Amino acid sequence: MRRYLVVANQTLGGPQLTLKIREAVARGPCTFHFLVPATPPQDHATWTEGEAGALAEERLGSALSGARELGVVADGSVGDPNPVQAIADVLATSDVDEIIVSTLPAGISRWLRLDLLHRVERRFDLPVTHVIGEAEPAREGG
């Protein structure tokens, strides 16, 4: 059974990532671990660590509900705000076959500006698939 680590934040519930997950499921038995680094969104001037973590938990819960609706076997966690450290923390206790990283498009993606994809490939020596997604719609009052 193939094991995927899906790393996403603002794009976690997006159609592009959902399509990639469906493609993986169609190839054969697999499981997913959704990792949401608790990074504060760029569109808010001030955020506390607790608020960033709560938003990440909310996104994770929605993603796990969506996965169950699709019949996908998945679990997940909220991780360190630094996505490389968050991945390292998961890989310290879990074996995976591939990492799927979902980012916003170039130009607006902080993760791409930080060269996240290449850093993950070099550090973890695992196949890395990049999905370009869209940010989820803004929440009411947030």
Describe this entry's structure for a reader.
With 142 residues, the chain is of the alpha/beta class. It has a single domain (2-132), classed as HUPs (Rossmann fold, 3-Layer(aba) Sandwich), CATH 3.40.50. The protein contains five helices and five strands, in the order E-H-E-H-E-H-E-H-H-E. Strands 3-2-1-4-5 form a five-stranded parallel β-sheet, with helices on both faces. Helix 1 (15-27) links the parallel strand 1 and strand 2. Helix 3 runs parallel beside helix 5. It is globular and about 40 Å long. The N and C termini lie far apart (40 Å). Mean pLDDT is 89; it is low at 138-142.
Short account of what is shown:
This protein is an alpha/beta fold.
Layout of strands and helices, then pairs:
Layout: E1 2-7, H1 15-27, E2 30-37, H2 49-70, E3 74-79, H3 83-91, E4 98-103, H4 110-113, H5 116-124, E5 128-132
Parallel strand pairs: 1-2, 1-4, 2-3, 4-5
Task: Offer a few descriptive terms.
142 residues; disordered C terminus; alpha/beta; 5-stranded parallel sheet; Rossmann fold; 40% helix
Number of helices: 5
Uncertain residue ranges: 138-142
What is the name of the CATH architecture?
3-Layer(aba) Sandwich
Helix share of residues? 40-55%
Largest sheet: 5 strands, parallel
Average pLDDT taken over every residue? 89
Distance from N terminus to C terminus (CA atoms, Å) equals 40 Å
Content-based structural category: alpha/beta
Please report the first level of CATH classification, the CATH class.
Alpha Beta
Strand content: 15-25%
What is the count of structural domains? 1
Number of strands: 5
| CATH topology (fold) name | Rossmann fold
The dominant shape is: globular
**Widest sheet, order of strands:** 3-2-1-4-5
